[in-house]
Amino acid sequence: MKKAILIHNPTAGTGNHDKEELTRQLKEAGFEFSYFSTNDPFWDRFVKKDADIIFVAGGDGTVQKFAQVMIEAKKNKLLQVPVQVFPYGTANNIATTFKIGSPEKFIRESTKKTGFDIGVVEGVEEAAFFIEGIGCGIFPKLVRVMKTLDGEEKKDEITRSLRELLKIIDFYEAQEAIIIADNQEITGKFLLVELMNIRYIGPNIELAPNAETGDGNFELVIVREEMREMLKSYIQDHLNERDSRKRLEDFADLRKVSEIRLKWKGKDAHIDDEIIEDYREEEIKVKNRRAVFTFLTP
Predict the structure, then answer these.
(1) pTM recorded for the entire structure
(2) Measured in whole angstroms, how far is the alpha carbon of residue 219 from the centre of its chain?
(3) Where a domain ends, among 109, 142, 158?
(4) What are the angstrom distances between the C-alpha of 179 and each of 123, 174, 251, 264, 268?
(5) Shared domain check, 101 and 161
(6) What is the domain count for the chain?
(7) CA-to-CA distance for 70 and 251, rounded, in angstroms?
(8) Using one digit for the tens of pLDDT, what is the confidence trace for 158-208?
């Protein structure tokens, strides 16, 4: 019988998933497992266990917390163990990148192993690495705005986020930035600069369609000030559930890079889903560390 670790965030997303249902699914699939709830202050002790597979049930934030524990643990033998995500969050951008659907169906399907890079970061205090992305401009501004909304307003968070993002694009003041991407200098005034390891960002927007999580590169996505209306139209199509992927390259600069240096002249910056507080034009350096994790994907 295969040994597994189940890490579960019971409050992820709408919270309509419980321990009993998850453990039933794993038992029926033939796993012997140890259960860890992220609500338990000692949940990070899972790193002391042995396992053939790790299940992470939650949203993107849960995967980020899991990754942080894994990277910071000393002599962590679990780094070689494949990880399977059960998407129970709001946006589930990581799972959507991997095209992961229903957990109950997924654990019975054949899977392949997919490498997952991390970004090693210098120049900010908030975090030394990221798994989803790092960037500046309208998306960290959106995070700030969404944090001011109360619970009643957040009932349909994806739709509300898209509407708020449209408002931000209308009035956001483009900022100057200096980017050195694999020794090539890029300058100008931008609405957003994002370095992405996955294809989706924020309220499930496909901003990096060519991103591959384990290829040793990130996708650098840049939208200049003069492309404001085209960006707004792209987000409006997402809100109206129309496919706009073919138009992304018409207004965004997309390129594969393995390392960058970035200096943003504004204050809105983020690592994964966390704001970089008190950012004051510090130079941020990022290098790719290839295939730190292995994820199971359909």
Answers:
(1) 0.93
(2) 13
(3) 109
(4) 14, 15, 18, 8, 16
(5) no
(6) 2
(7) 38
(8) 999 999 999 999 999 999 999 999 999 999 999 999 999 999 999 999 999
